[in-house]
Amino acid sequence: MRKILTNPNIKSLFLQLLAVILSFELGAVALLVLKPEFAALLLCLPVLMGVVILFCCCQFFRKQEQMIEDAAAKVREYISGNREARIECNEEGEWYRLFHEVNTLAAILNAKAENEGRANASLKNTISDISHQLKTPLAALNIYNGIIQAEAEMGALAEIQEFSALSEQELDRIETLVQNLLNIAKFDAGTIAIEKKMENLSEMMADVKKRFLFRAGQEGKEIVLAGSDSLSFLCDRNWMVEAVGNLVKNALDHTDSGDFVRIAWGQSASVVQITVQDNGSGICPEDLHHIFKRFYRSRYSKDTQGVGLGLPLAKSVVEAHNGTIEVDSWLGKGTMFALHFLIPTKL
Fold first, then answer.
1. CA distances (Å), 1 to each of 4, 6, 95, 198, 323, in order?
2. How far apart, in whole angstroms, are the C-alpha atoms of residue 188 and residue 183?
3. pTM metric for this prediction
4. Dist. CA 315–CA 292, nearest whole Å
5. pLDDT above 50 (res 347)
Protein backbone atom coordinates (compact mmCIF):
# COMPACT_ATOMS: atom_id res chain seq x y z
CA MET A 1 0.00 0.00 0.00
CA ARG A 2 2.86 2.36 0.82
CA LYS A 3 4.40 1.81 -2.64
CA ILE A 4 1.06 2.57 -4.30
CA LEU A 5 0.69 5.82 -2.38
CA THR A 6 4.15 6.97 -3.51
CA ASN A 7 2.52 7.73 -6.85
CA PRO A 8 1.22 11.31 -6.44
CA ASN A 9 -1.61 10.76 -8.94
CA ILE A 10 -2.97 7.71 -7.08
CA LYS A 11 -2.53 9.50 -3.78
CA SER A 12 -4.45 12.48 -5.15
CA LEU A 13 -7.25 10.21 -6.38
CA PHE A 14 -7.62 8.54 -2.98
CA LEU A 15 -7.76 11.94 -1.26
CA GLN A 16 -10.39 13.14 -3.70
CA LEU A 17 -12.54 10.04 -3.13
CA LEU A 18 -12.16 10.40 0.63
CA ALA A 19 -13.17 14.06 0.43
CA VAL A 20 -16.23 13.18 -1.66
CA ILE A 21 -17.35 10.44 0.74
CA LEU A 22 -16.84 12.64 3.80
CA SER A 23 -18.63 15.54 2.14
CA PHE A 24 -21.67 13.44 1.33
CA GLU A 25 -21.69 11.85 4.78
CA LEU A 26 -21.58 15.26 6.45
CA GLY A 27 -24.22 16.51 4.04
CA ALA A 28 -26.53 13.59 4.92
CA VAL A 29 -26.08 14.20 8.67
CA ALA A 30 -26.79 17.93 8.24
CA LEU A 31 -29.88 17.20 6.19
CA LEU A 32 -31.27 14.84 8.82
CA VAL A 33 -30.63 17.29 11.66
CA LEU A 34 -31.65 20.54 10.02
CA LYS A 35 -34.32 19.41 7.55
CA PRO A 36 -35.86 16.10 8.64
CA GLU A 37 -38.72 16.64 6.20
CA PHE A 38 -36.24 16.22 3.31
CA ALA A 39 -35.03 12.83 4.57
CA ALA A 40 -36.33 11.25 1.36
CA LEU A 41 -33.58 13.07 -0.50
CA LEU A 42 -31.08 10.83 1.25
CA LEU A 43 -31.98 8.14 -1.26
CA CYS A 44 -30.52 10.33 -4.01
CA LEU A 45 -27.24 11.08 -2.22
CA PRO A 46 -25.55 7.68 -2.93
CA VAL A 47 -26.34 8.04 -6.61
CA LEU A 48 -24.94 11.56 -6.69
CA MET A 49 -21.88 10.45 -4.74
CA GLY A 50 -21.34 7.59 -7.22
CA VAL A 51 -21.49 10.04 -10.11
CA VAL A 52 -18.87 12.29 -8.52
CA ILE A 53 -16.60 9.29 -7.71
CA LEU A 54 -16.97 8.04 -11.28
CA PHE A 55 -16.03 11.47 -12.59
CA CYS A 56 -12.89 11.54 -10.40
CA CYS A 57 -11.90 8.04 -11.56
CA CYS A 58 -12.42 8.96 -15.21
CA GLN A 59 -10.20 12.01 -14.80
CA PHE A 60 -7.53 9.87 -13.15
CA PHE A 61 -7.52 7.16 -15.82
CA ARG A 62 -7.59 9.76 -18.60
CA LYS A 63 -4.46 11.31 -17.13
CA GLN A 64 -2.84 7.88 -16.83
CA GLU A 65 -3.70 7.09 -20.45
CA GLN A 66 -2.21 10.38 -21.59
CA MET A 67 0.96 9.69 -19.61
CA ILE A 68 1.33 6.24 -21.23
CA GLU A 69 0.62 7.67 -24.68
CA ASP A 70 3.32 10.32 -24.15
CA ALA A 71 5.76 7.59 -23.07
CA ALA A 72 4.87 5.48 -26.14
CA ALA A 73 5.43 8.53 -28.36
CA LYS A 74 8.92 8.99 -26.90
CA VAL A 75 9.69 5.31 -27.52
CA ARG A 76 8.54 5.62 -31.15
CA GLU A 77 10.64 8.77 -31.48
CA TYR A 78 13.69 6.89 -30.21
CA ILE A 79 13.05 4.00 -32.62
CA SER A 80 12.74 6.52 -35.47
CA GLY A 81 16.30 7.64 -34.85
CA ASN A 82 16.26 10.34 -32.18
CA ARG A 83 18.81 8.92 -29.73
CA GLU A 84 18.21 11.80 -27.31
CA ALA A 85 14.49 11.04 -26.83
CA ARG A 86 13.67 10.33 -23.17
CA ILE A 87 10.48 9.76 -21.17
CA GLU A 88 9.80 12.31 -18.46
CA CYS A 89 10.07 10.60 -15.08
CA ASN A 90 10.59 13.34 -12.53
CA GLU A 91 8.00 12.02 -10.06
CA GLU A 92 7.70 8.96 -7.85
CA GLY A 93 5.65 5.83 -8.41
CA GLU A 94 5.75 2.50 -10.21
CA TRP A 95 5.11 3.96 -13.66
CA TYR A 96 7.93 6.46 -13.26
CA ARG A 97 10.26 3.72 -12.06
CA LEU A 98 9.43 1.82 -15.25
CA PHE A 99 10.03 4.93 -17.34
CA HIS A 100 13.36 5.46 -15.61
CA GLU A 101 14.41 1.90 -16.50
CA VAL A 102 13.38 2.51 -20.13
CA ASN A 103 15.54 5.65 -20.17
CA THR A 104 18.43 3.66 -18.69
CA LEU A 105 18.00 1.02 -21.38
CA ALA A 106 18.10 3.75 -24.04
CA ALA A 107 21.36 5.07 -22.58
CA ILE A 108 22.86 1.57 -22.60
CA LEU A 109 21.80 1.04 -26.22
CA ASN A 110 23.34 4.39 -27.15
CA ALA A 111 26.61 3.45 -25.47
CA LYS A 112 26.62 0.07 -27.20
CA ALA A 113 25.93 1.66 -30.58
CA GLU A 114 28.72 4.15 -29.97
CA ASN A 115 31.17 1.36 -29.08
CA GLU A 116 30.14 -0.61 -32.15
CA GLY A 117 30.63 2.51 -34.24
CA ARG A 118 34.14 2.92 -32.89
CA ALA A 119 34.85 -0.77 -33.49
CA ASN A 120 33.60 -0.49 -37.07
CA ALA A 121 35.69 2.62 -37.60
CA SER A 122 38.72 0.82 -36.17
CA LEU A 123 38.09 -2.16 -38.45
CA LYS A 124 37.70 0.15 -41.42
CA ASN A 125 40.97 1.90 -40.57
CA THR A 126 42.71 -1.44 -40.11
CA ILE A 127 41.54 -2.68 -43.49
CA SER A 128 42.61 0.62 -45.04
CA ASP A 129 46.02 0.32 -43.36
CA ILE A 130 46.45 -3.24 -44.61
CA SER A 131 45.56 -2.23 -48.16
CA HIS A 132 47.90 0.75 -48.06
CA GLN A 133 50.84 -1.09 -46.54
CA LEU A 134 50.53 -4.09 -48.88
CA LYS A 135 50.91 -1.94 -51.96
CA THR A 136 54.68 -1.49 -51.61
CA PRO A 137 55.73 -5.16 -51.12
CA LEU A 138 53.23 -6.35 -53.75
CA ALA A 139 54.54 -3.84 -56.27
CA ALA A 140 58.10 -4.96 -55.46
CA LEU A 141 57.10 -8.60 -55.95
CA ASN A 142 55.64 -7.81 -59.36
CA ILE A 143 58.89 -6.12 -60.39
CA TYR A 144 61.05 -8.98 -59.08
CA ASN A 145 58.92 -11.60 -60.79
CA GLY A 146 59.11 -9.69 -64.06
CA ILE A 147 62.89 -9.54 -63.78
CA ILE A 148 63.07 -13.23 -62.86
CA GLN A 149 61.05 -14.16 -65.94
CA ALA A 150 63.24 -11.99 -68.16
CA GLU A 151 66.45 -13.40 -66.67
CA ALA A 152 65.11 -16.95 -66.95
CA GLU A 153 64.65 -16.48 -70.67
CA MET A 154 68.31 -15.42 -70.93
CA GLY A 155 69.52 -18.18 -68.59
CA ALA A 156 70.99 -15.79 -65.98
CA LEU A 157 70.90 -18.11 -62.93
CA ALA A 158 72.75 -15.74 -60.58
CA GLU A 159 70.27 -12.93 -61.17
CA ILE A 160 67.36 -15.34 -60.81
CA GLN A 161 68.63 -16.46 -57.40
CA GLU A 162 69.16 -12.85 -56.29
CA PHE A 163 65.66 -11.71 -57.18
CA SER A 164 64.12 -14.92 -55.84
CA ALA A 165 65.71 -14.08 -52.49
CA LEU A 166 64.32 -10.53 -52.69
CA SER A 167 60.86 -11.93 -53.48
CA GLU A 168 61.07 -14.21 -50.47
CA GLN A 169 62.08 -11.23 -48.33
CA GLU A 170 59.02 -9.27 -49.49
CA LEU A 171 56.76 -12.26 -48.81
CA ASP A 172 58.15 -12.48 -45.27
CA ARG A 173 57.47 -8.77 -44.90
CA ILE A 174 53.86 -9.22 -46.01
CA GLU A 175 53.38 -12.12 -43.60
CA THR A 176 54.78 -10.07 -40.68
CA LEU A 177 52.69 -7.06 -41.63
CA VAL A 178 49.41 -8.98 -41.84
CA GLN A 179 50.08 -10.94 -38.65
CA ASN A 180 50.91 -7.79 -36.65
CA LEU A 181 47.88 -5.94 -38.00
CA LEU A 182 45.58 -8.81 -37.10
CA ASN A 183 47.04 -9.05 -33.60
CA ILE A 184 46.66 -5.31 -33.02
CA ALA A 185 43.07 -5.46 -34.30
CA LYS A 186 42.34 -8.28 -31.83
CA PHE A 187 43.75 -6.23 -28.94
CA ASP A 188 41.61 -3.25 -30.04
CA ALA A 189 38.51 -5.43 -30.16
CA GLY A 190 39.26 -7.00 -26.78
CA THR A 191 39.17 -10.54 -28.20
CA ILE A 192 42.66 -11.51 -27.06
CA ALA A 193 42.68 -13.99 -24.18
CA ILE A 194 45.74 -13.50 -21.98
CA GLU A 195 46.40 -16.83 -20.26
CA LYS A 196 48.90 -16.18 -17.49
CA LYS A 197 51.09 -18.83 -15.90
CA MET A 198 54.32 -18.75 -13.95
CA GLU A 199 57.04 -18.81 -16.60
CA ASN A 200 60.83 -18.92 -16.30
CA LEU A 201 62.19 -15.65 -17.70
CA SER A 202 65.55 -17.14 -18.63
CA GLU A 203 63.90 -19.79 -20.81
CA MET A 204 61.61 -17.21 -22.42
CA MET A 205 64.47 -14.87 -23.30
CA ALA A 206 66.47 -17.82 -24.65
CA ASP A 207 63.55 -18.49 -27.01
CA VAL A 208 63.68 -14.86 -28.16
CA LYS A 209 67.43 -15.11 -28.80
CA LYS A 210 67.01 -18.36 -30.70
CA ARG A 211 64.41 -16.72 -32.91
CA PHE A 212 66.85 -14.02 -34.08
CA LEU A 213 70.17 -15.84 -33.75
CA PHE A 214 70.47 -16.72 -37.45
CA ARG A 215 69.76 -13.16 -38.58
CA ALA A 216 72.17 -11.70 -36.02
CA GLY A 217 74.89 -14.07 -37.23
CA GLN A 218 74.33 -13.10 -40.86
CA GLU A 219 74.51 -9.39 -40.02
CA GLY A 220 77.53 -9.73 -37.72
CA LYS A 221 75.66 -8.69 -34.58
CA GLU A 222 75.58 -10.21 -31.11
CA ILE A 223 72.57 -10.94 -28.89
CA VAL A 224 73.52 -11.01 -25.20
CA LEU A 225 71.37 -12.40 -22.36
CA ALA A 226 71.78 -11.27 -18.75
CA GLY A 227 69.59 -12.30 -15.84
CA SER A 228 68.79 -14.86 -13.17
CA ASP A 229 68.15 -18.43 -14.29
CA SER A 230 65.60 -18.95 -11.51
CA LEU A 231 63.40 -15.84 -11.83
CA SER A 232 59.79 -16.66 -12.76
CA PHE A 233 57.08 -14.29 -13.92
CA LEU A 234 53.28 -14.55 -14.18
CA CYS A 235 52.52 -13.95 -17.86
CA ASP A 236 51.28 -15.35 -21.15
CA ARG A 237 54.46 -16.90 -22.53
CA ASN A 238 53.62 -16.66 -26.22
CA TRP A 239 52.54 -13.02 -26.10
CA MET A 240 55.44 -11.95 -23.92
CA VAL A 241 57.94 -13.63 -26.26
CA GLU A 242 56.20 -11.83 -29.13
CA ALA A 243 56.49 -8.44 -27.41
CA VAL A 244 60.16 -8.79 -26.47
CA GLY A 245 60.85 -10.28 -29.89
CA ASN A 246 59.46 -7.17 -31.56
CA LEU A 247 61.78 -5.01 -29.45
CA VAL A 248 64.76 -7.18 -30.42
CA LYS A 249 63.79 -6.99 -34.10
CA ASN A 250 63.56 -3.22 -33.81
CA ALA A 251 67.03 -3.16 -32.24
CA LEU A 252 68.48 -5.33 -35.03
CA ASP A 253 66.89 -3.04 -37.62
CA HIS A 254 68.76 -0.05 -36.18
CA THR A 255 72.21 -1.51 -35.50
CA ASP A 256 75.22 -2.17 -37.72
CA SER A 257 77.63 -5.04 -38.03
CA GLY A 258 79.67 -5.40 -34.85
CA ASP A 259 76.91 -3.92 -32.63
CA PHE A 260 75.07 -5.80 -29.89
CA VAL A 261 71.55 -6.26 -28.54
CA ARG A 262 71.35 -6.97 -24.81
CA ILE A 263 68.29 -8.57 -23.20
CA ALA A 264 68.33 -8.31 -19.40
CA TRP A 265 65.82 -9.14 -16.69
CA GLY A 266 65.62 -8.87 -12.94
CA GLN A 267 63.45 -8.19 -9.92
CA SER A 268 63.49 -5.26 -7.50
CA ALA A 269 61.03 -4.90 -4.64
CA SER A 270 57.64 -5.75 -6.16
CA VAL A 271 58.56 -5.17 -9.81
CA VAL A 272 59.86 -7.45 -12.55
CA GLN A 273 61.83 -5.57 -15.20
CA ILE A 274 62.86 -6.62 -18.69
CA THR A 275 65.15 -4.41 -20.77
CA VAL A 276 66.21 -4.57 -24.40
CA GLN A 277 69.23 -2.37 -25.09
CA ASP A 278 71.39 -1.79 -28.17
CA ASN A 279 74.31 0.41 -29.15
CA GLY A 280 72.90 1.34 -32.54
CA SER A 281 71.86 4.60 -34.19
CA GLY A 282 69.44 5.72 -31.48
CA ILE A 283 66.19 7.66 -31.88
CA CYS A 284 65.88 11.37 -32.61
CA PRO A 285 64.45 13.27 -29.61
CA GLU A 286 61.57 14.62 -31.72
CA ASP A 287 60.52 11.04 -32.57
CA LEU A 288 60.54 9.60 -29.04
CA HIS A 289 56.93 10.59 -28.32
CA HIS A 290 55.66 9.05 -31.56
CA ILE A 291 57.38 5.68 -31.83
CA PHE A 292 54.41 3.75 -30.40
CA LYS A 293 52.04 5.17 -33.04
CA ARG A 294 51.04 2.74 -35.76
CA PHE A 295 52.91 3.10 -39.06
CA TYR A 296 54.98 5.95 -37.68
CA ARG A 297 58.27 6.32 -39.51
CA SER A 298 60.86 8.92 -38.71
CA ARG A 299 62.17 10.98 -41.59
CA TYR A 300 65.64 10.16 -40.27
CA SER A 301 65.07 6.39 -40.20
CA LYS A 302 67.38 4.24 -42.32
CA ASP A 303 65.17 1.19 -41.83
CA THR A 304 63.58 0.36 -45.19
CA GLN A 305 61.87 -2.87 -44.12
CA GLY A 306 59.91 -1.93 -41.01
CA VAL A 307 56.33 -0.70 -41.30
CA GLY A 308 55.89 0.69 -37.79
CA LEU A 309 53.78 -2.02 -36.16
CA GLY A 310 56.23 -3.90 -33.94
CA LEU A 311 56.43 -1.29 -31.20
CA PRO A 312 52.65 -0.60 -31.02
CA LEU A 313 52.03 -4.36 -30.76
CA ALA A 314 54.66 -4.71 -28.01
CA LYS A 315 52.99 -1.84 -26.11
CA SER A 316 49.56 -3.53 -26.44
CA VAL A 317 50.94 -6.81 -25.06
CA VAL A 318 52.68 -5.11 -22.13
CA GLU A 319 49.57 -3.11 -21.20
CA ALA A 320 47.44 -6.28 -21.46
CA HIS A 321 49.71 -7.63 -18.68
CA ASN A 322 49.08 -4.43 -16.63
CA GLY A 323 52.65 -3.36 -17.28
CA THR A 324 54.34 -0.23 -18.60
CA ILE A 325 56.91 0.31 -21.33
CA GLU A 326 59.43 3.13 -21.36
CA VAL A 327 62.17 4.12 -23.77
CA ASP A 328 65.44 6.02 -23.39
CA SER A 329 67.59 6.78 -26.40
CA TRP A 330 70.82 8.57 -27.15
CA LEU A 331 71.37 9.62 -30.75
CA GLY A 332 74.31 7.74 -32.20
CA LYS A 333 74.80 5.71 -29.00
CA GLY A 334 71.82 3.39 -28.75
CA THR A 335 68.37 2.79 -27.29
CA MET A 336 66.95 0.99 -24.27
CA PHE A 337 63.37 -0.21 -23.84
CA ALA A 338 62.31 -1.07 -20.28
CA LEU A 339 59.25 -3.16 -19.40
CA HIS A 340 57.95 -2.99 -15.81
CA PHE A 341 55.43 -5.43 -14.29
CA LEU A 342 54.07 -5.38 -10.75
CA ILE A 343 54.21 -8.71 -8.91
CA PRO A 344 50.58 -9.44 -7.83
CA THR A 345 51.56 -11.51 -4.78
CA LYS A 346 53.40 -8.54 -3.29
CA LEU A 347 50.75 -5.86 -3.77
1. 5, 9, 15, 59, 56
2. 9
3. 0.54
4. 7
5. no
